[in-house]
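Hi team,

Filling in the usual template for the complex we talked about on Friday. All components are listed, including any nucleic acid strands or ligand strings, so the model treats them as one assembly.

SUBMITTER: L.P.
PURPOSE: interface mapping
COMPONENTS: two
RESIDUES: 539
SEQUENCES:
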Amino acid sequence: MDQLIQLLIAGLATGAIYALAAIGFTLVWQTSQTINFAQGEFVMLPAILALAARDLLHLPFWVALIVATAAFLALFGFGFKRFLVDPMLKHGVLPLAIATMALSILMKEGAKDGYSAQAAQFPSMVPEGVVSIVGAAVSLRDIAVFVVAVAAIVALQLFVDRTRLGRTMQATAQNPTVARILGIRVERMILLTFLINAALAALASYLISPIYLAKFSNGEFIGLSAFIAAIVGGFNQVRGALAGGFVVGLVDNLAAAYVSSGYRTAVPLALLVVFILFKPEGLLGRREERTV
Amino acid sequence: MTRVLEVKGMKKYFGGIRAVDGVDFHVNQGEILGIIGPNGCGKSTLFNCILGQLTPTDGEVLLEGRPVTGLYPSQLNRLGVSRTFQLLQVFPTLSVRENLILAGQEHRGTKLTRLFGRGDAGLTDAANRMIAFFKLEHLADQKAGGLSYGQQKLLDAAMAFMAGPKLVLLDEPAGGVNLTMLAALKERLEAINREQGATFVVIEHNMDFVMSLCSRVVVMAEGRVLAQGTPAEVRADPAVVEAYLGH
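RESULT (copied from the run log):
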């Protein structure tokens, strides 16, 4: 029983991080109708950048965090849109998808060669410790990760639904042509979407790296888990990504404990297959019809 | 009588195809002008040239006497020309009220108030009046995507009025709408014309709808103006009868 509670909390914590990354898939999908195959690397890199800024520039860690976040937003929020998505989208969504695959390799190899091939400790922003929940000792860090990630997602959802800028972003995603006619600065809204994506990826990076260590290859499993989360939850909904993240986080933690840690990533993949076969629109997604 | 819109010598060629081939017409303040013609007669192309979605091969568009040829749709919108769409273009995940606010918000305030001002851009009252006018009260807080096709058409029309336009261009408002909803739409358009002096151009191939709604009609065929005048005059014109009914 104790172990189950611990696993559930740990599952919800990793699930919330997957959800942050999965929302990135959703945002990029809505604005450019493509899948960012570098999404996992987007979550891997900010932590590496922060460590590099600390070790190579000899900055205090919190300054390094700020510098890394600013650099990441500039390069992979603004730069990603301006220098990769915009030029490639003119040639269609498939070339863009392939370009994001190339970007993922570049980011991974860049992190390996530019910083380290070894896994590095990433300082946790939450003190170590355990609290007792219904008799089970639960890591304080898991709870903090869960709370921060969910708070970020709730804040995003409120922003999108309740503010003028958020509604304008929705309108842009749904119908850029009409939004433009109504005087909305569509390009600016799309840029904002990419900046939000980069910010969520950076947050996910700082939350997950203390748990799994910061390593250049982290993007592989994070990207895959987030992708499955997005499919399971429904690709076109922010709250779908949240639900999908929790499902995948719980399934992979429970599978690691009760099935086999070797099959940890295989079980979510099986889940992906089941969803694609029987409920392709996901738990909360809408069916999409589009003209080709 | 002031001319809100004047189109002179409008031409649009696609390669060798003369989709619009020298069209002249004008729209007077407070009038409902209909543009009709068989499918492929060039009326949608004409519309798109006026609205800046296509660049005309030749010709001029004047809005209240000022040349506006070749301006972007968003610039025209800012100058007071709004439009509805043949294929519905409401924002499905926003509520009816939010759709209306969105349609008017970019016309108000400065850069600063747009960023930091009120979430509704001070348009909630205006949106509510529009909702009441188009009798959509019971749907005000529902997502536009869940409305019936006809209700979405009403919303689309209401959105066109949110920015206080000088001229509204309606692109096939009757297309795909059932008769009850069509009557409601027509009645509301007549009311807004009568009460607020709104000026319209309606493109339609539903003859009954145009003939009963419009005060003046321009008939197009093969890229040219075949006839223009009151509905009765146009209906009696032998050239029109031939274009519509054949020999």
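MY TAKE: The mean pLDDT of chain A is 89. The longest helix of chain A spans residues 2-32.

Thanks, L.
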